[in-house]
Structure formats: C-alpha cells, structure tokens
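Hey, quick one: can you model this chain's 3D structure?
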Amino acid sequence: MATKKAFITGVTGQDGALLAQFLLEKNYEVHGLRLYSATNDTSRINDFMENRHFHLHYGDMIDGGNLRRLVETIAPDEIYNLAGQSHVKVSFETPESTAQINALGTLRLLEAIRDTKIRFYQASSSEMFGSAPAPQNETTAFAPCSPYATAKLYAYWTVRNYRDSYGLHASNGILFNHESPLRGEEFVTRKISLAVAAIITGKQEKLMIGNLDSRRDWGHAKDYVHGMWLILQQEQADDYVLATGQSHSVRDFINAAFACAGTNIIWQGQGLEEKGYRASDGRVLVEVNPQFFRPNEVHELRGDATKAKQKLGWEPRISFSTLVEQMMTADIMAIQKHTSYDPMLLAAE
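Sure thing. Here's the predicted structure for all 349 residues.
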C-alpha cells in the first residue's frame, strides 16, 4: 500500500521521470501531468508505465481549471512543479508562451492549493542569477539574462509570496545544471554526447558548437531529484540552492566526452576561429558556430549549496566525470543499435 501521494507536473521530462522513479521506489502513489501529443512522449517513463501506483493525466499549465480539478481529484500530499518551457535559447524566440507556462503556470497551481495543506516544490533555476558573480547562493542578488530566467524569477517570488501570505508549505529549489542520459538533445550536454558518440562510430563528421568558454555547474539529475524530495520533507518550507560547487566550461565537457572514447582533442585558434583537432591525425572534429550563441550570454554559473548540506544533509554523490561517462556510454549504445543515425530518435530513448 502506498504511503503518500505525489503529483508531478512535467513527468515526461528528464527530472519528472527520474523523480517519479525515485518516489515509486519510496512506495509513493505517483500521478504525473503530461501534455497531449500525437507522437510518443513517454519514452523516459516506459519502465514504470505499468506500475499500478503510477498514473498519467492529460493537462496543460495554461489551463487553470483543469489543474484545479486534478488537484482536487488526486488529493496529493506533495506537488512537484517541474513542467515548463525549459530551453533558455528558445525562450528568446517564444517569450510570451515561456511566461505563460513557467511564470503564470506556477501561479495557477498555487491558486489551486491555496486553501490546502499540500506541500509544494517549485523547480527554480540557477539561470535566475544570470550575470551575478559566482559562486551564487540563496542570498545572491538575481540578475536574469533571458525570458526563461525572468519567468522563473516571477514563479520564485510568487512561491515566496504565497508561503508568506497564506502559510503554504511551498519551497523553491534553485537547481544548477543537472544532466543524465535522459537529457533532451536540445541541451548542450546531450548535444555534445550524441555528436561525439556519432563521430566516434563514424556516423557524423564533426560537432558544431556555440560558446566554448561558457561555464556551468553540472551535476547528475539523480542527485538533484533526491534533493527535491528532501526539501519537501522539512518541517518548515524554505528555499535552497542545489549545486556541486564546481564549474566546467563547454570545452571541458567536450574534452571529457571525447576522452571517454579514447580520443584526445587539441584546441587551436581563438573566438569564432577556434577548432578542436583529433590529436592522433589532426582531423577537425569541433567547430564554433555563432548561430548557437545566446542573444545574451551567461558566462559562469557556479553554486554554493552550503545551506542544503547543513539543513537537508544533501550533497552530490555522482562526479562530473561519471556523469559524462554515463551519457557517452548510453549514446554510443543507442547509436550502435540503429542502422541509421537519427539524433531525434536517439534523444527520445
């Protein structure tokens, strides 16, 4: 018999799938919100789709009435709001829909639980810190540099306002970048691992990439969903930064990915002219393309998770090198299974 009920928005995404699996293993009854799609979007949750404690519901973060009905029907103990337009660069092209989903979608959910005792977790983002100097923690002033970040900041302050105004157990997890083999191929880490795997297996010529000098605090998503759960187990709601405290450049990630396949990269040139050459034969494997730069670049995000370590007992357990190795192993295996290389198909696996 399940001990608690959880409702996860965005359950078909990387974090939603990993959190659902984590909670099922803790004997929760898990309900997940998914958008209707004519194509299969459940590949990340196929392993537990038939679990009798797992239930899927159709819905949309712009439909407040349906969200309220779902909350009333499910009557969850905990809500994890992970739904969103999650790509920073895309938010410059779709700022209004990003705000509708990421900002007002959170408001709609909070309204649905305003008079309840449901515990609420909001997936806030390190992107809210934007151009603020590293390391960033809970007291760092926000300086968002994208429509995505500003929408997330609206949601962050709305959570705090509802906590203070209505006594909700509503918390923000300000998560720094977290990856896994389930990461979507539109994100730079998965783009790198897929491309490097394809290059190594002879399916692709080279990797085209944006800003090599951008630095991010990359951790493993499994560690971070554990942190989400810990946040909602606290007696008092609060806001927490979850981060590894170490940053790596995009160039570092590329080097680590190629190294997993036994290939060393030598870098030559500067700026847009910089290229990555295979050390063994001088072949160009990496080139910079300004098309992949953000309109407003964030150069370094590196978190300070001291508060989470002290109050939650949380700290990352999976190293950067292990993360890259896992992603590379999964993508090489996926490519080898297919006779033709289709990055969109592989990214969905």
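One thing worth noting: The CA atoms of residues 177 and 218 lie 5 Å apart.
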